[in-house]
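Structure (tokenized):
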């Protein structure tokens, strides 16, 4: 990949907003204090990793439900 290109650019802008909102919801569910200034760089890797892991589990479960509903 050429320098300066981002591979994680969302195709749908609303999806980016929804994922950001989901990040805060999952952090709250896990009891992790979210940064008040919106900068996640000062958080521990363990905390951010657990947030991302739980988000992935929820998204996979949602996708499985959607696929099961189509069959």
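Design, position by position:
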């Amino acid at each position: 990949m050429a320098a300066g290109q981002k591979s994680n650019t969302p195709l749908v802008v609303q999806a980016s907003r929804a994922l950001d909102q989901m990040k805060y919801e999952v952090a709250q569910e896990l009891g992790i204090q979210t940064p008040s200034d919106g900068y996640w760089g000062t958080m521990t890797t363990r905390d951010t990793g657990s947030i991302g892991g739980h988000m992935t589990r929820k998204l996979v479960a949602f996708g499985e439900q959607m696929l099961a509903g189509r069959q």
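Reviewer-requested clarification: The chain is about 60% helix and 0% strand. Residues 45-70 form the longest helix (26 residues).
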